[in-house]
Specification:
With 262 residues, the chain is an alpha/beta fold. It has six helices and eleven strands.
Length: 262
């Protein structure tokens, strides 16, 4: 079991939303957030504390098994398949009917081309409108942001412009960006969004681009490895010393609550 540690600055100071649960299973963990009881709100740390533009704290605040972990955040509209991608990546399984409530977190170790390995925490954030302020607070510490759309849903692709604005506003300047077309289950068949259109959007914003299928696993591992390689090229040291100021996440064996399709 891998111990997950997060810097206190990653949690924030606003006492309203709280970590409700965290679950460990092998290399994975899951978290969800809910409103705090007002009587005890002053004793807790919050997920909701966006940094002022230009004042984003430094990266590398996460620790797994005593080593620094890079942080990747999945963003995109609700229903595009972010959770399915995460579970295919972390557990090699396909789940079709889960929607994230708050935040899911899974951790994996990836092998790099140079023979080294990197600990990667992937945060699956809820895409529903009411969770967008919660999602935004996580950009600040991210080493990579994966913007996910459904290749069969043009509206989800159109929304990427809004998500990209949030990334550019709140994420570190050196963050790795990747545009991912999920649910590419036909592998070359006609889709609502063409590969060329997605590639043009990604190029415009200096992002990597990929299409994948959580259903059969096509390109899922590869997309995260591409992100990891770029993260290291940007200066992240997977063998570096962990940060001194950090707090351990509370853990539970209770799985996060979910609802309908992801």
């Amino acid at each position: 079991m891998e111990d997950l540690v997060i810097d206190e600055e990653d949690i924030g100071d606003d006492p309203e939303p709280l970590f409700q649960k965290a679950a460990h299973e092998g290399a994975g963990a899951a978290m969800v957030a809910k409103e705090a009881d007002k009587e005890t709100a002053g004793e807790t740390k919050s997920l909701e504390a966006p940094a002022a533009p230009g004042n984003a704290p430094e990266q590398a605040s996460q620790v797994i098994d005593g080593k620094p972990a890079a942080k990747a955040v999945l963003v995109g509209d609700s229903g595009v398949g972010k959770t399915s991608l995460l579970l295919r990546f972390s557990r090699a399984e396909f789940v079709t009917s889960k929607a994230t409530i708050g935040v899911d977190l899974q951790a994996q170790t990836l092998s790099l081309p140079d023979g080294k390995s990197i600990k990667l925490q992937v945060w699956d954030t809820a895409g529903a409108e009411q969770f967008q302020s919660l999602t935004s607070s996580y950009f600040r510490r991210a080493h990579a942001v994966v913007l996910v759309y459904d290749v069969n849903n043009r509206n989800s692709f159109s929304s990427l412009g809004r998500w990209m604005m949030e990334v550019d506003r709140l994420a570190p300047a050196e963050v790795v960006k990747m545009v991912v077309g999920a649910k590419d289950d036909s592998h070359g068949g006609e889709t609502a969004v063409s590969s060329e259109e997605a590639a043009a959007f990604a190029s415009k914003h200096g992002a990597l681009c990929e299409r994948c299928s959580a259903q059969d696993g096509t390109n899922v591992q590869d997309m995260f490895k591409r992100c990891a390689v770029k993260i290291v090229r940007n200066g992240f040291d997977p063998d570096g010393k962990p940060p001194k100021a950090a707090v351990s996440l509370a853990t539970s064996t209770t799985a996060p609550k979910r609802s309908k399709c992801c």
